[in-house]
């Protein structure tokens, strides 16, 4: 490992030290079409599952939800602890340009590189969030499955390019998911964290979207000034990333306003609506949202219908 670029880790596991980024990149590039198969199977399962569950009673799955959320929380916390030091180290010693344009977090840091690879792979099991919603017969809104599919595709695409700015996105996502899935694990175990924690999670997610857009703007500027040979990120990647982050920001801001700042939210009113994709009421969706531990954008799915008692994702 290049000790000049990587932080001084107190301990490195054998599986981290044995990580060879070239092998994983070759495999990801060679099998990039798999991501479309995964997404196709995912859509067939969730929509086929909805049809199958139409005339059947819903499952509670509280025990499985607690285990699911706990495992995802533990994974996210570990990922944050193993990737954040690299970002902090680079910012302190090499500056913003390096953090956005140089993929040393994969090429020179086996610890961060290993957890970057796991981050991409983790987007596959995270599709299981939707399975819980289907089996619990909760509303399945477009943004839910759209978010899962686009994040999986974008993450895989970015890894094949060794997109340097991804170090920011990965660290932010790990950190936010650490808090979010821990919160849902507690909810699934019948603990009742204060409402301020839910509001904090939404605020963290909004911040994540703002920083994501800013990083892409900086990356575009660096490409123009330093040239493509000096900044390892493609124009296409910037366009895709900023489109995703900006759309998510708009939706999160709308959710935040309706949940915490609107007149109905301040008065504590509970508007009950039926979603376009389900005959279940909003109150049913609220119940599921506190248990399934959905990933970032899933917290927005009830944004247009949510009331002041929704726990923000």
Explain the overall architecture.
Helix 4 crosses helix 5 (95-101), helix 9 runs antiparallel to helix 12 and helix 11 packs antiparallel against helix 12 (235-261). Residues 270-313 have low confidence and may be disordered. This protein has 14 helices and no strands. It has helices at residues 14-17, 21-30, 34-53, 62-93, 95-101, 104-107, 110-122, 128-135, 142-161, 166-188, 195-226, 235-261, 263-267, 282-289. With 313 residues, it is an all-alpha fold. Its EC number is 2.3.1.199. Keywords: Fatty acid biosynthesis, Fatty acid metabolism, Lipid biosynthesis, Lipid metabolism, Membrane, Transferase, Transmembrane, Transmembrane helix. It is an enzyme of class 2 (transferase).
Helix content: 55-70%
Q: Output the helix-strand order.
A: HHHHHHHHHHHHHH
- Poorly predicted tracts of residues: 270-313
The end-to-end span amounts to 38 Å
Strand count, sense and barrel status of the largest sheet are: none
Oligomer: single chain
Tell me the fraction of residues in β-strands, as a range: under 5%
* Mean pLDDT across every amino acid position: 83
């Amino acid at each position: 490992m290049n000790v000049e670029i990587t932080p001084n880790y107190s301990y490195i596991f054998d599986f981290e030290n044995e990580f060879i980024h070239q092998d994983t990149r070759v495999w990801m590039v060679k099998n990039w079409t798999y991501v479309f198969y995964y997404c196709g199977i995912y859509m067939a399962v969730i929509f086929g599952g909805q049809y199958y569950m139409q005339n059947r009673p819903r499952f509670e799955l509280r025990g499985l939800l607690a285990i699911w959320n706990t495992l995802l929380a533990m994974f996210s916390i570990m990922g944050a602890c193993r990737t954040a030091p690299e970002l902090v180290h680079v910012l302190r010693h090499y500056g913003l340009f390096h953090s956005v344009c140089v993929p040393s977090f994969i090429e020179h840091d086996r610890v961060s590189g290993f957890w970057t690879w796991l981050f991409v792979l983790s987007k596959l099991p995270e599709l299981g969030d939707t399975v819980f919603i289907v089996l619990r017969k909760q509303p399945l809104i477009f943004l839910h499955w759209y978010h899962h599919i686009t994040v999986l595709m974008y993450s895989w695409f970015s890894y094949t390019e060794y997109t340097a700015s991804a170090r920011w996105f990965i660290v932010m996502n790990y950190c936010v998911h650490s808090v979010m899935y821990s919160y849902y694990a507690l909810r699934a175990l019948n603990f009742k964290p204060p409402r301020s924690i839910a509001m904090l999670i939404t605020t963290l997610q909004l911040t994540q979207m703002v920083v994501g857009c800013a990083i892409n703007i900086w990356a575009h500027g660096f490409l123009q000034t330093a040239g493509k040979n000096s900044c390892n990120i493609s124009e296409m990647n910037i366009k895709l990333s900023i489109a995703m982050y900006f759309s998510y920001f708009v939706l999160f801001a709308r959710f935040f306003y309706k949940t915490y700042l609107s007149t109905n939210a301040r008065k504590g009113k509970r508007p009950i609506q039926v979603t376009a994709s389900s005959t279940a009421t909003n109150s049913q969706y609220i119940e599921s949202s506190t248990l399934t531990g959905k990933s970032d954008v899933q917290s927005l799915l009830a944004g247009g219908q949510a009331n002041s008692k929704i726990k923000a994702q």
